[in-house]
Amino acid sequence: MSQNIFRAFVAAAALSLATSAFAVDNVISKDAPELASVRAKIKAKDFKAAIAELEPMLATVQHADVYNLLGFSLRKSGDMKQAATFYAKALDFDPDHKGALEYQGEMFVELGQMDKAKANLAKLAKLCPTGCEEREDLEKAISTSSAALKAK
After folding, report:
1. What is the pTM assigned to this prediction?
2. How many CB atoms lie within 10 A of CB 141?
3. Which of 15, 49, 51, 148 is the most buried (most CB within 10 A)?
4. 3 state DSSP class of 81
């Protein structure tokens, strides 16, 4: 995307947020300025601050990244029920969202739902047959959990 088109998009998004005239289906990429501070909070493990920043976005931004990051922050804060809701929303919005498949799979591992975690891993294997970070992370979570169960 050229910088002029990107700037026009950002300006339009800012205007729509400022006026709240309508809900928009914003496209948000991993390097989007809208989520940069949220990602920084998550990296710093300040999940409550990330949640506080993400929740107001729900009124104007409908995107799998927002739902996924909210699900992740809720899960890390201990709210598995709400996390499950937002992972499901992310995957409803984008069934091939690798991040949501990974994080939802990790939640399944934490809940002892290994069949569901392995189903997410199978989806990731189809999406990135030569490997990707999300697939590798979920494989590690599953194998670590399986090893811990065998050790008991």
Report:
1. 0.77
2. 20
3. 51
4. helix
Give the chain's length. 152
Q: Please give the Cα distance from 52 to 32 (Å, whole number).
A: 18
Q: What distance in Å separates the CA atoms of residue 110 and residue 107, rounded to the nearest whole number?
A: 5
Tokens standing for 63? Answer: 């995107």
Residue with tokens 């989007």: 32
Tokens linked to 101:
């498949």
Q: How far apart are CA 146 and CA 143, in angstroms?
A: 5
Q: What topology is assigned to 26-151 in CATH?
A: 1.25.40
**Over the Cα atoms of the chain, what is R_g?**
17
Q: Which two tokens stand for residue 61?
A: 């931004």
d(CA 61, CA 28): 9
Domain boundaries, the chain: 26-151
